[in-house]
Amino acid sequence: MSGHSKWATIKRKKGAIDQERSKVFQKLNREIFVAAKKGDKNPENNPSLRMVVDKAKALNMPKDRIQAAIDKAHNSNEQENYESVRYEGYGPYGIAIMVDTLTDNRNRTAGDIRSTFTKRGGNLGTDGSVSYLFSYQGILSIPKNYDEEKIMELALNNDALDFDVTLESFDIITSQENFIKTKEALEKEGITDFLISEIRYIPNNTVALDSEKQEKIYNLIEALEDLDDVLNVYHNMEE
What we know:
Layout: H1 8-15, H2 21-37, H3 47-58, H4 63-73, E1 83-90, E2 96-103, H5 106-119, E3 123-124, E4 134-143, H6 148-157, E5 162-165, E6 169-174, H7 179-188, E7 196-203, H8 211-225, E8 230-235
Antiparallel strand pairs: 1-2, 1-3, 2-8, 4-6, 4-7, 5-6
Helix pairs in contact: 2-3, 2-4
């Protein structure tokens, strides 16, 4: 257990939502569209769509916008198309960074990613150059206004991989397969106000930097997140 949050980047990003709400909704709209297009339009029958919809709701995206994105994906006349592309590289001080994108123009996106890395002291690598440093796992972060023993018991009973207590939250780490089961178990107990609820890449080990060096990494992360085609940025810097 630790006194700091491993998820500071996500929570920092949530704190900035009001300043960039339109861009956030635009990216969520694209994610919902792609998830709905790949499967059932009912989130209950489409786990990928359900996770994106839950994320959109947590960020207060209006229900009508969510539904419009789903309906658009199942419109037979809709020609819009995106593909998932991952970029891997290193930031300053050897920090490993993965960037997941949804793009309708690979050349544009690759150029934007490469330029952003280069301008901020990083370099883009090849496929697989850093992905082996991460594991794909679920994170359910809960505010600390619940009973710790109860949350820990629910986590253990649902085969959680880890349970972490930070200054502001209880963090449950799950396998990809057990994520929805664990979340549903918490919801049945009336726990619905998740700070974070998603499956994401988590670093197997982290690299500690001083605050000045951290700031340079955050500048790179924020610049990448600001690109229109970028969905998620993962890194192995200790926060």
